[in-house]
Amino acid sequence: MDPSVVVFRDWLVAYRIQHPDGPDPDPEEMYDLYANLAPTNNDDRPVVADGEDLNQALNTIHTDVVRRRTFQTQTSKVDNDFWELFEAVALNVEAQSQEAGALMYYAYLNMYFSNDYIYLAPQGDRPVADARFVLDVLPQRMVDAVGNIAGVMDAQNAVSVMKFLGPGQNDKLDTVVMYCASDEPEFAGLRQALIALLQPEVLYDRLPLMVLRVAAGLGYGKEPPSFSYGEVTDREEESISFGEFRIVVLLLAYQATVQTGAEGDGFAELLTENIDAMFEAFGLDSDHPERQVEVTADVGLQQQFITTFSEWRNGNPNFYGNAAYF
Q1: Closest Cα partner for 78 from 115, 44, 43?
Q2: C-alpha angle 126-172-201 in degrees, rounded to nearest 5
Q3: Rounded to 5°, angle at Cα 319 from 315 and 320
Q4: At CB < 8 A and 24+ separation, what contacts does 299-305 make?
Q5: Could you tell me the pTM of the whole model?
Q6: Which mean pLDDT values do the consecutive 10-residue runs of the chain (326 residues) have?
Q7: How far is 56 from 60, CA to CA, in rounded Å?
């Protein structure tokens, strides 16, 4: 079992000792453990540069005049001047980049303000991402990193989109996430391009749990599948993040172990077995938690996953109905 999965196994065992009569662990608390960034470890992480500095950095990518609109920011930590560059209606903003030699545009912003990230996508069709590179760029070096990483994204067709932590933030270890397609020919060179681009002084050597450490401050993982829900003639897709997917699988393993009535050492041993089995059912490998293959869990177990996820993220276990599956 991978050491990062052992961290969760041991945490769940300790939780069971402390809460023998329930309730189940809070998945949000488990997600914080996955994020590997306790509040007490936050003191040495300055916030991302202010909006004016980042605005200047982004203007090195967008050398033409871009359309600017004013809108209400959703957090007081963000410099309003910086966000003048972005608004939901500006999804088609594009400008010629002299440095990267490509047209770029900013998208998805209205949906993701509350997640603290800014999304950057290349113009034109790109393959569907099934993997991610995560980088823990020093927040105070984000200005330097954004333009360079965007250039890599433009040059590598394997990259679908990237996101980076916005100004005023420091509460993520994956401060830059690059979503990519692992079956593209350019994918093999993408890791080396990122390693060559980012010098050690630009990165923290700390990453979220369960990603594969590729180099100092650079990790890799396969994306989980989405699930579909709704009427047969009008199905919708719902995506789940890398961390969310694995947290729900671990929680299901915990619940299955509790239901047996096992206690003490027997609980720890059975929990280990259930984590292995639940990981396998959902296309994961407890020895290599960064990997992902097809989900083989039966429909009932898939429904249990989706209701658990829905209760966590929507406050309603029946939010997706009773016909949702991977």
Answers
A1: 115
A2: 90
A3: 140
A4: 299/325, 301/252, 302/227, 302/326, 304/252, 305/248, 305/249, 305/252
A5: 0.79
A6: 94 95 93 71 55 51 30 32 34 32 31 51 73 84 68 75 68 83 81 78 84 90 92 83 95 96 91 97 96 94 94 90 86
A7: 7
